[in-house]
Amino acid sequence: MKKNREKRLVIVSSTGKMVKFFLVNHLKALSKEYKVFVICNLEKQRDILNILPKNIKVVHMPIKRQISLLSDFVSLFRIVYFLYKNRITMIYSISPKGGLLAAASSWFLRVPVRVHVFTGQVWVTKRGFSRVLLKFLDRLISIFSTDVIVDSHSQKRFLEEQKIIKKDKALVIGNGSISGVNTKTFYPSKKIRDKIRFDFKTGESIVFLFVGRLKRDKGVFELIEAFNRVKEKNECVELWLVGDDEEGVQNQVASLGFNLDNVRFFGYVTNPEVYMQAADIFCLTSYREGFGSSVIEAAACKIPSIGSRIYGLTDAIVNKKSGLLVNVGDIDDIFSKMLLLCQNSTLRREMGEFAYINVISKFDADRVTDQLSIFLRDRILKAD
């Protein structure tokens, strides 16, 4: 243990939010064994990582999510200097831009262990030059890294088929997911359910819930249109949309003439679990997902899900058991599955129960952290 405490590990992410939502449990465990640093962009969210143990040093770096050559070059130089100055043994990155900068800088310095986690591919929904460029950058990340972790088995197969990663250097931790589910935070609670629904004057309405960044790629437009069709069949329904409205979706759907009766936009929240505890059906009709962490979080609250039949979500949803899969962008399919679960309380309850048991047995956060810690410890030992 004393020898490990001399090892220095740095986590790199484009945003503090990714660290907060996915890595806190890992960081708490790793900080007991290594000297841990976190590099991420904390602009407008300086206090977001105050929840981390005091022995973890958090370093703000203005990494931009979009391509910005001058800014990216400056960030790359600063990361190289940081790694060199602090004699880093291992670097671990989780976001596309953060991953590229981390992989390139650590490869240049020949940091012994260079791990990147693929959590979904932006280029899947792109066309033309931008798709080619972004695929090339993902391939570079894989080349520069000594190890690649993928957060779902179906995504790993996809990346291998696309020749982004090689089978001999990529793996999935356990059953997948970047961090599992903290069942101390996400759990069924009738008390919280009743309070939230009372506060929102929801009554006995069936609540469909989306949690995530509001973007076209997340299938939000199709979800709202399908919900409006459900509302024509049953007026006692609501659709809750929780998350950053990065693309002005609320204004767009309003300008396009969508009926927003019974549709609520909540914006970014720090307690998504209470919305899941109060909801009836979780919806993620996305065009692309690496895994679908929000699906298993909802499952831990005994909420069944409706999700797209895409890589990543096919790992998070057991079709016809923990939820229902739909064809991407198929409004008729989304509508029929939403209506089915809306009208069948027995099916909702049975699927919610199965989803809960499945999550507890496969995706408990402590189990995922233990499996990751064992892997990283083994890689460091082999690099010595």
Structural account:
There is one protein chain. Helices cover 46% and strands 17% of the residues. By secondary structure, the chain is an alpha/beta fold. It has two domains: 2-180 and 365-383, Rossmann fold (3-Layer(aba) Sandwich), CATH 3.40.50.2000; 190-362, Glycogen Phosphorylase B (Rossmann fold), CATH 3.40.50. It has a seven-stranded parallel beta sheet. Helix 5 packs across helix 6. The radius of gyration is 21 Å and the shape is globular.
Derived structural class: alpha/beta
**What is the CA-CA span between the terminal residues?**
15 Å
Strand and helix order? HEHHEEHEHEHEHEHEHEHEHEHEHEHHH
Biggest sheet strand line-up = 3-2-1-4-5-6-7
Task: Tell me the Rg in angstroms.
Answer: 21 Å
- The poorly predicted ranges are none
Task: Provide the β-strand percentage band.
Answer: 15-25%
* CATH-defined superfamily of the largest domain: Glycogen Phosphorylase B
Just name the CATH architecture of the largest domain: 3-Layer(aba) Sandwich
CATH level 3 topology of the largest domain: Rossmann fold
As an assembly, this protein is: single chain
Shape: globular
Number of strands: 13
Total helices: the number is 16
pLDDT averaged residue by residue: 94
